[in-house]
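Onboarding guide, step 5: your first structure request.
Type a short instruction followed by the sequence, for example:

Predict the 3D structure of this protein.
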Amino acid sequence: MTQETHLNELKARFRGYFPVVVDVETAGFNPKTDALLEICAVTLKMDEEGWLSPDKTLHFHVTPFEGANLVKEALEFNGIRDPFSPLRGAVDEEHALKEIFKLIRKEQKAAGCQRSIMVAHNANFDHSFVMAASERASLKRNPFHPFATFDTAALSGLALGQTVLAKACKTAGIAFDNREAHSALYDTERTAELFCEIVNRWKKMGGWPVIEPAQESEQEAES
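The system replies with C-alpha cells like these:
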C-alpha cells in the first residue's frame, strides 16, 4: 500500500475520527429543559480514490421527555404542531439514540476509526441536544467526541462565502427546497452533501493528501 493510498482511507482523513452528520429539531433552545423532537444521522464513506460521500441514514421522530418544555414559537418554526400526535410514529429518546449509536459504532469500527465526530450546521446546537438526551437516558456508550465537532456553517463560510444552509447548498450546486427545510431528515441529507462537497472540493484543489516539506523535497530530488 502506497502512502497516498493510505491517506485516501477514511480513518486517515480526519485523524482517526469517523464523521457522522446529524440534525435535530427541538422545542426550544435549551438542551437541558426543552424537548428533542426529531433526530437524523447520516454516516459517510470514502472510496478508493479518497472521495467522500453519504452512506447510511437513520431517522426518528422523538416523543418529548417527561416534563420537557415546549416553546410555542419553536413548534411553529419547525412545523411540529402536536409533538404528542400518534401520527408522528415517535419513539422515546433512549430508543432513538441507542439505535443511532449502534449504527455509528458499527460503521466506525468497519472504517477502522477510533471515535466519531459530529458534523452539523451550527454544530454546537445539535451536539448539545444529543449530549443532553444521552445523559438523560444514562447511555454509557456514546460514540461522539464530548466537545469537538465539524461545523458546516463555519466550513461553508470559508469555502463558499455563505453560512446559511440553504444559501451554502445553492452556492455549492446542491438543490435545496425551502419547503422541505426544518425537517431533520431533509436538513441532515443536505448537510451531508454539503460537507462531502467541501471536503472533495478541497481535494480537487490539491489540498489533500497534504504534502509535507520533507516529502516535497524528496519529490523535487526525484524529478
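Each response can be followed by summary notes, for example: Strands lie at 17-26, 36-46, 52-61, 115-120, 144-151.
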